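Appendix B, example 12.
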Amino acid sequence: MEHNISRAQMDEILRRYVEATSNGIFTTADVMLATAEYLGRIIVGMSDTPIAGMQAAQVASDYLVNTVKAGMTAKGFNMGGH
């Protein structure tokens, strides 16, 4: 799976997520679960085979885990050397 990403594009999406939760219309749980569902739909739409779909899901999962580890480390927790 190719990883051509634009940090500016990602930052804009993140800004919109923050806006969606800070205005009180959506909860963080709403955004989290809707994001997971949409991500699943994106993966199914872009994948020609189940193997490709699962590989794309693993890329997303790994990125999520690394993001959580980095954030928890920044909060002062020992995340096992991360």
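The mean pLDDT is 92. Residues 7-74 form one domain.
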